[in-house]
Structures are given as C-alpha cells and as structure tokens.
Amino acid sequence: MKLTVYLSGEIHTSWRDDVIMACEKQCLDITFLEPVTDHGASDDCGIEIMGAEPDKFWHDHKGAKLNAIRTRTAIGQSDVVVVRFGDKYKQWNAAFDAGYAAALGKALVVMHGSDHQHALKEVDGAALAVVKTADQVAAILTYVITGKI
To answer: What's the pLDDT tens digit per position in 62-107?
Structure first.
C-alpha cells in the first residue's frame, strides 16, 4: 500500500524530518507533503507575488490566501494528515488544518505533549490516533501499510 501523508503543524522543531527518517528506516512507500516551513516566505508570499500592502491585516490576508491554496490542495491529496502541536506559540493554523482534514474525512493523527491534552480535547476527539512522538507516528504508518506492529 502506498500512502500520501500531509505533515501539518509547528515549524520550530525537526519533527517532520524525524517522522520521515523513521518511515524511511521501515522502507515505507509514502509521499510526504508539507506546508512552506520558511517562516518569512510563508508570511510574505502574498506581498512578494501580488504587491505590497501598507496595512498589516491585508499583508497577512494575502499570504494566508496563498498558503491556503497549498494547504487545501495537500490535505485534499492526502490519505493521512498528521498535525503536530508544539510547545512554542499557539498553532491556530494547525488546529484549522486538523478541522479541515476531519471535515474532509481524512485519517487524522494528532501529535502533542501532555501539557496540551486539555486544550486540544476536541481536536483529539476528531483524531483516529493521538501520539507524543515521531516514532509513534512512524509506527502507526508502518502498521497501516504493512499490517505489522
């Protein structure tokens, strides 16, 4: 079985690389998709492509719209969506991605530490699995593809 997996969420740690490397060790047939993780490029794509905005709201609005094209397309193409909530900052966009994936009926795996358990109870409730580590994500994907624990 081949899977397409979208890796959504925080951009301040190497968790995406950790998941990908753990899956590569298992020789899994997975295509990974992800958002633009260059913070500056993600923030400024709208004004760089469509022109400057003097008002920060419209600056952010343009960027968010372009990023939404990428995110919606990637989630739509994915079989599994993994959403990581990190310790740093509030990831409102990650929560939105989780809700969007759930609304599309995508298999949703949520990843976060115990400190976010209460705040993310509704997101966790929509997930098919809730984990803390990249190795657990890789183990889930291994099981899904191979049927082996």
So the answer is: 999 999 999 999 999 999 999 999 987 778 899 999 999 999 999 9
Identify whether the C-beta of residue 45 lies closer than 8 Å to the C-beta of residue 68. no
Tokens of 22: 């753990």
Name the E strands within 10-136. Answer: 30-33, 80-84, 107-111, 129-131
Is the pTM value of this prediction over 0.90? yes
CATH number at residue 122: 3.40.50.450
Bridge partners of 131?
Answer: 111
Q: Give the total number of structural domains in the chain.
A: 1
Torsion sign (Cα): 98, 89, 115, 118: negative
Q: Is residue 46 part of a domain?
A: no
- Give the domain extent around 9: 3-38+78-146
Q: How far apart, in Å, do the first and last CA atoms of the chain sit?
A: 16
